[in-house]
Amino acid sequence: MEGQDEVSAREQHFHSQVRESTICFLLFAILYVVSYFIITRYKRKSDEQEDEDAIVNRISLFLSTFTLAVSAGAVLLLPFSIISNEILLSFPQNYYIQWLNGSLIHGLWNLASLFSNLCLFVLMPFAFFFLESEGFAGLKKGIRARILETLVMLLLLALLILGIVWVASALIDNDAASMESLYDLWEFYLPYLYSCISLMGCLLLLCKYFSDLILREK
User: Fold this and answer.
1) pLDDT per residue as tens digits for the range 90-121
2) CA–CA separation, 159 vs 183, rounded Å?
3) What pTM, to 2 d.p., does this model score?
4) Which of 153, 141, 182 is nearest to 51 (CA)?
5) CA Rg, the chain, in Å?
6) By CB distance 3.0 to 4.6 Å, which of 119, 147, 148, 188 could disulfide with 184?
C-alpha cells in the first residue's frame, strides 16, 4: 500500500508539473502573439535591406517581442493571482478550476522574476547594441563581427553598472556587510539593481508627465 501511495503521489506530481508547464506555455504564447502584432503595428516600415541587416532586424524584433510579452505577463500577473484566488474561494469544490492553485501562481511568479531579469539585463541591451553594431574596424564584416562587438559592449555596460551600484551602495550604506552582500548576485545584487532601475524609470515617467502638464497649461 505504501508503494502504491508513493507511485500515486509521484504520478500526481508529474501530472501537475506537466499541467503547469502547458498552462505557462499557452499563456506566454498568447502574450507573444499579441506583442508581435502590437510591435509590427507601430514598427516603422523600412525599405528593402541587405540580407545581413534583415537578419539583424529579425533577431532584434524577436527579442523585443519576447521582452514585451514578459513585461505584459509581469504586469498582468498580480490581477491574475487575485482573480484566480477569488474564483477558488467562490467555487472551492469545482473540479474544473482546481488547476488555479497556489503551485501554478508561485511558478508563474518565479518565471516572471527570472525572465524579467533576463530581459532587463541581457536581451534588451543586446537587441539595442546589436542593431547599432557594425563590427570592429579591421575585422571581416558580418553577423559574427556584430555579435562580437555587441558582447563587448554588454561586458563594458555590465562593468559600468556594477561600478555605479557599488559607489551608490558605498555612499548610502557604507557597511562591510552590505558591501559583501553585493557579491550575492542572485539573492541581493540583481533584485537591488532591478529596484534601482525601476525607481529611475518611475521617476523619469513622472518627470515627463509633469513636464507635459506644464506645457499644456502654457
Assistant:
1) 877 777 777 777 788 888 888 888 888 888 88
2) 14
3) 0.76
4) 141
5) 23
6) 188
